[in-house]
Amino acid sequence: MTDELPPARKRMVKPPMGGTEEGRGKPARLKTAKMRTPSSQAWLSRQVNDPFAAKARAHGYRSRAAYKLTELDDRLHLLKPGIRVIDLGVAPGGWTQVAVERGVTSIVGVDLLPVDPISPAQIIEMDFTDPACGPLLIQMLGGPPDVVLSDMAPNTVGHRKTDHLRIMGLIEIGVD
Q1: Residue 45 lies inside a defined structural domain of this protein
Q2: What are phi and psi of 40, to 5 degrees?
Q3: Residue 74 maps to a domain
Q4: pTM (2 decimals)?
Q5: Tell me: the pLDDT tens digits for 130-143?
């Protein structure tokens, strides 16, 4: 018998809310449908059990979309300290979080929805299709952007061609 003590266990000050590094263990079941349609119930169930959503919560990201930008930036090296960035459709702020994490200090975001502040980013609640929005964003940024981020999607109607046209319309407006 040895007198050695087992190694001390690391103790977290505050455990992550809603997930671990690996995501959730077993699937969570929704307790009630509460007048939801079957498709709505299925979407909610997928969302609750999504390992990327759990991982994002564990890392403190506002959305799972942060991993999309992280992967893009790892491959293309778009975000560098000193560049100017505009984030169209910033809510809930996952992409802006990643940009700030990667050293971007000059970033302006715009969305129709209110967004909690992300220092040092400037966020405005406005319709980016408003003709006054573009000049305002450039003025707030202090010049033209080096990178324009956007993870927007229009409200869909379920008709593929109509939805595609709406998506393309957002892209064309964003490019202007």
Answers
A1: no
A2: -65, -40
A3: yes
A4: 0.72
A5: 999 999 999 999 99
